[in-house]
Amino acid sequence: MNHLFKIPVIVFFLISSTLCLTSCKKKPTLPVVTTANVTGITQTTATTGGNVTSDGGAEVTARGVCWGISHNPATGSSETSDGAGTGTFTSSITGLTANTTYYVRAYATNSEGTSYGNEVAFSSNPVLLATLTTMIVSSITTTSAVSGGSISADGGGTIFASGVCWSTNQNPTTTDSKTSDGSGTGSFISNITGLTANTTYYVRAYATNSAGTAYGNQQYFTTVAGIGAIIFNPNLSYGTVSDIDGNNYKTIQIGTQIWMAENLKTTKLNDGSAIHNVTDFSTWDTLTTPGYCWYNNDAKTYKVAYGALYNGFTVETGKLCPSDWHVPTNDEWTTLETFLGGSDVAGGKLKEISTVHWISTNTDATNESGFTALPGAQRDIQNDFGNNLWIGTLGQWWSSTSSEGWFLDIRELHPELNSISGSNSSGIYINEGISVRCLKNN
User: Fold this and answer.
1) pLDDT tens track for 151-163
2) Among 330, 310, 293, which residue's Cα sits nearest to residue 411?
3) At residue 403, what are phi and psi to the nearest 5 degrees?
């Protein structure tokens, strides 16, 4: 009888155990995840991430971060996907708007659903003003000039306007005269127009983004004086000489020397050979044969008063001046300066009076020598714009004396100085272009 009762007990135990294994298994829960701090913040991006510390008893199949401009962001809009499983992960947030507050939460998903970490707030960086520089002013005439700018950084915002602004007052802004030269970063060229002759202007490049308008460094320049007739000394008697082109020049005796009182204009050597008229600036830079140009390639405006600009190769031919005339040597220039009292004071005695051709600071100009020096400018091979420089503000003349290699000595006059420089000059490159005055042979 006792054995008959033991069988049901064993059966009951087995059934109870089976039911417990089935019904007592722990049900999965949502994962546990925390949100990392936000770092590497820019105007449009940031870095964060999270740490899945528990999978809740079921495999984590997705994780990442989600963000928005409202509290408690959730998946379904802006989010990252950063793998699966537990542990730490890093998330890159992109597509942000500058200067905006965002809220971000890490998330983790298993079979029970999606859980979120703690909320972290951050602000994207603001857009800054652009960074730019103003280009040197070139191609200066009586009413126009060329400048521009170079935008090296947009400040994190789109540049939607750029150009240069100018005024007769320092630190011009876009409320003054300005150009509009496009958008975006990089370099741009600006054509400044509507200027007044013989006037000093200040110019700055500008660039505008959502943060405002930034300005480059200030440049200044003086427009060319009106191209009027040359003012010779009315108290002196002048002679004349003609070149092979038929141009007539006044001449003046100064001490024992007889000089042309005007800058040379010939387009031929005195043997009839044509001199190459070079209008392309890159060609001029590399030219190794005789060449000439007119200021701004404009003979109609500048030829009569200022003459031509010749490279040193024309001087070295020995045939540039009319027959019985020559380009003076360094010593012959010194003879002129000595007769006029030395280089410290000779400049004022050589320069044309008034500000018809020189700018308004034409210091101590008396032209008592009758030389009537005019500021014919220079074609400079080192100028970034490959163009003519400083008409109205610089007078330079070749000597035929070689100082070393590819250099010839020169003489130079400035409107604000009473002196003439160059007597101890190391010269300039012979492929630069400056004026010529001829001296009569003894």
Assistant:
1) 999 998 899 999 9
2) 330
3) -90, -40
